Amino acid sequence: MLKALANIGKYIVLLKNIFSRPEKASIYYRQTLRELENHGIGSIWIIVVISVFVGAAITIQTNFNIENPWLPRYIVGVTVRDSLLLEFSSTMVGLMIAGKSGSSIASEIGMMRVTEQIDALEVMGINPAAFLILPKIIAMVLFMPVLCAVSVAVGLLGGYLVCLIGDVIPVSDYIYGIQYIFYPYYLSYAMFKAAVYGFIIATVAGFYGYHVQGGAIQVGKASTRAVVISSVMILFTNLVITNIILH
Fold it and tell me: Would you state the pLDDT for residue 27?
């Protein structure tokens, strides 16, 4: 318990250091572009592949669970759309990026810590917390909503393909269900959650990498802890945001 409280205190102090003394904006611009390429564009393919299968699976399962002659078939499209928007895409993308990018961020910063590169930055008068972590935060917060939108679109495409190929329901009913009583607020809600998850992933992974002590083995352990804690915080935050906004 005391260790957990100490880590929370260190995390808050790290956030203060990140935002209190930033470097030149031009430096962050170049670094942010690099992070967008590494953790944003480089993650699109895995989001696309997984979202196709998730959308197809939700379509099949929804159709299986509403086998009722009194319910119209387009309900399947409505359910798939709202499931992806309200829950699956944002949370699924958050958990996947926590595993992929979270471990990478923690390992990268952790290796810089154990090889004393962070100490060298401090000697040079550079704020290492801001220099190393802030571009990652900006990139993750900006691109996570994009990945979420891609996941929603591709998930709906996966449902369309399974209706077309597997003859789950008529394609016309599926498309009508996607368009039926669409609330743009749901999309804003999903984008907001994705941005919050991006902040959590970047800061938690940066925290564990920044405070590594020891050698390469400790870097590996820090990477694992970063993924686990990020995933738990994403699920907890999802519960809190859902209860506040959709209650």
Answer: 74
Integer CA distances (angstroms), 179 to 147, 148, 169, in order? 22, 19, 16
**Domain map (residue ranges) of the chain:** 25-242
**The pLDDT of residue 164 is above 90:** no
| Global confidence as pTM | 0.90
Segment 78-106 mean pLDDT: 90
Q: Which of 93, 65, 105, 126 is nearest to 210 (CA)?
A: 105
- pLDDT in the model for residue 165: 87
One DSSP character per residue, 160-223 reads HHHHHHH-SS-HHHHHHHHHTT--HHHHHHHHHHHHHHHHHHHHHHHHHHHT--SSHHHHHHHH
- Could you tell me if 169 and 66 are in contact, meaning their C-beta atoms sit under 8 angstroms apart? no
Name the phi and psi angles at 57, rounded to 5: -65, -40
Report whether 198 contacts 143 (CB < 8 A): yes
**How far, in Å, CA of 166 to CA of 121, rounded?**
58
Residue holding tokens 């956030």? 15
Tokens representing residue 197 in the block: 């998850």
Distance (Å, whole) CA 144 – CA 101: 11
Crossing angle of helices 171-179 and 128-166, in 10° steps, is 140
Which parts of the chain fold into alpha helices (H)? 2-20, 25-35, 44-65, 75-83, 89-97, 103-114, 117-123, 128-166, 171-179, 184-210, 216-245
pLDDT(22) > 70: no
Query: Residue 47 is encoded by which pair of tokens?
Result: 């989001």
Is the pLDDT reported for residue 196 higher than 90?
yes
For residue 141 the two structure tokens come to: 């917060």
Residue 97 — left, alpha, or beta (φ > 0 → left; ψ -120 to 50 → alpha)? Answer: alpha
